[in-house]
Design goal:
single chain, about 290 residues, mainly alpha, Farnesyl Diphosphate Synthase, two-stranded antiparallel ribbon, about 70% helix, globular
Length: about 290
C-alpha cells in the first residue's frame, strides 16, 4: 500500500470512529451538535489520531480501544482550532477552505462547540471499556497535560498572544511552540503507545519522536504561512506577519528554518531506530510533516 493510500485508509478509520462517538445533529441541542460536527468533519488531515494509532501498532498489533483514544486527540485539536479562530484570539474567517465555526454559528455557539468537544474527548477516554482503568487514567493525564497548563496547548496560546509585537526571540519562540503545537503531537504518540501497553522508559523513544516532529510541524506551518496562498492553505495566509507573531522565519529566516525542519525530521527518524521496520510508517509520517504543502 502506498503512503497516500495508507493516509486515506487511516483517515477513514478515524472518521468512522468519530461519527460513532459524536452526538448526531438530530440530538438536542441541535445547533450545538451541528457546530461541533461542522468543524470536526471539515476535512482535516487526522494527523494526530493517525500518529496515535501507528504508535500503538509499533508496540503491539492488538491494542484495544486505540481508534477511540485517537478520536479524543482529534476532538481536542478541533476544539483548539475553533477557539483559536475566534476574534479574541487569532480572529480568522477561514479554516480548511470554508468559513470558520464562529462565522457560521456565531461566537457564543463556537465557544460552546469547542467546550463540548474538549469535554467529550475526556468522556471518550474515560469510557473505554476494553481498556483497563489504569491505562484510561494514564491516557487522560497525558491528554490533560498536553492540552492545558503549564506545559500544554493553552499555556502556549497565552505565550503566543503575549509575544505579539515583541522582538523575535529564539527562546520564547521555542517555548511557545513546544507547548502550543508540540505538546499535543507528543501526546498523540505517547497515548497510542500507552494504550498498547508501553510504560516507563519504553515511552522515551515515542516522547523524543513526538517532540521532534512537533517542532518540525510548527516550523513548516510558519513557512507555509509565508509561502503559500490562502486558497492553497485553506486558511488566511500571511496572518502571522500581520499580527506581528514570533515565528521561525521571523527569527531564523526561511532558509535556516527549512534546514531546522530537516534536522528535526532526521532526529525523529533516529529516535525510532530501536523499533526497526515496525516504525516504518511513523518515519513516513515524519517525512509527511515537513513535505506537506497545507
Amino acid at each position: 500500500m502506498t503512503f497516500r493510500d495508507y493516509l486515506t485508509e487511516q483517515a477513514g478509520v478515524v472518521d468512522a470512529a468519530l461519527e460513532a462517538l459524536t452526538p448526531p445533529v438530530e440530538a438536542p441541542p441541535e445547533t450545538l451538535h451541528r457546530a461541533m460536527r461542522y468543524s470536526l468533519f471539515a476535512g482535516g488531515k487526522r494527523l494526530r489520531p493517525i500518529l496515535c494509532m501507528e504508535a500503538a501498532r509499533v508496540v503491539s498489533d492488538r491494542a484495544r480501544g486505540v481508534e477511540r483514544a485517537a478520536c479524543a486527540l482529534e476532538m481536542v485539536h478541533t476544539y483548539s482550532l475553533i477557539h483559536d479562530d475566534l476574534p479574541a484570539l487569532d480572529n480568522d474567517d477561514l479554516r480548511r477552505g470554508r468559513p470558520t465555526c464562529h462565522k457560521v454559528f456565531g461566537e457564543a455557539m463556537a465557544i460552546l462547540a469547542g467546550d463540548a468537544l474538549l469535554t467529550l474527548a475526556f468522556q471518550v477516554l474515560g469510557s473505554l471499556e476494553d481498556v483497563s482503568e489504569a491505562l484510561r487514567s494514564r491516557m487522560m493525564f497525558e491528554l490533560a497535560d498536553a492540552a492545558g497548563t503549564p506545559r500544554g496547548m493553552v499555556a502556549g496560546q497565552v505565550l503566543d498572544l503575549e509575544g505579539e509585537g515583541k522582538v523575535p526571540d529564539p527562546a520564547l519562540l521555542e517555548s511557545i511552540h513546544r507547548a502550543k503545537t508540540g505538546a499535543l503531537i507528543r501526546a498523540s504518540v505517547r497515548i497510542g503507545a500507552i494504550c498498547a501497553g508501553a510504560a516507563g522508559s519504553e515511552l522515551d523513544p515515542f516522547s523524543s519522536f513526538g517532540e521532534h516532529i512537533g517542532l518540525a510541524f510548527q516550523i513548516v506551518d510558519d513557512l507555509l504561512d509565508v509561502e503559500e496562498s490562502s486558497e492553497a492553505l485553506g486558511k488566511t495566509a500571511g496572518k502571522d506577519a500581520a499580527q506581528h507573531k514570533i515565528t521561525f522565519p521571523a527569527v531564523y529566516g526561511a532558509g535556516e528554518s527549512r534546514r531546522m525542519a530537516e534536522r528535526e525530521r532526521q532526529a525523529a527518524h533516529a529516535a525510532l531506530e530501536p523499533f526497526g521496520p515496525r516504525a516504518a510508517r511513523l518515519k513516513e509520517l515524519a517525512d509527511f510533516v515537513i513535505h506537506r504543502r497545507t
